[in-house]
Design goal:
Shape: elongated
Low-confidence stretches: none
Number of strands: 0
Radius of gyration: 35 Å
Number of helices: 4
């Protein structure tokens, strides 16, 4: 029996058919998909059979998205914005403002 360290893996892999390579890849993935030592891109096998459609052009994509966003009409607000503060804090501030106003009037009258 020969030493396992002397096995030529490249020669074995070159002798496999594409179907056998795909089956080997599936079996390797099933061994340990949660292995933290593997890079994230290698933890899951590539399941796409589609060839690349072309080079990625970020500027063209951004221009298209901006154009599409400008053409799409904004939806109306369900509750129109009035600028009025509501709730306990808003009520407190209105009351405080009214009291200070009364105090100033009283102070200037004296």
């Amino acid at each position: 029996m020969s030493d396992p360290r002397n096995i030529d893996e490249d020669a074995i892999l070159k002798g496999l058919s594409p179907e056998e390579l795909e089956q080997l890849e599936c079996e390797l993935q099933e061994m340990d998909p949660e292995n933290a030592m593997l890079p994230a891109g290698m933890r899951q096998r590539d399941q796409t059979k589609k060839s690349p459609t072309g080079a990625f052009d970020r500027d063209a994509l951004m221009q298209h998205l901006e154009k599409q966003a400008l053409e799409h009409p904004d939806r109306e607000d369900l509750v129109p914005f009035t600028g009025q503060k509501k709730g306990r804090k808003g009520q407190f501030l209105r009351t405080l403002h009214a009291l200070l106003k009364k105090m100033l009037i009283v102070c200037f009258e004296l």
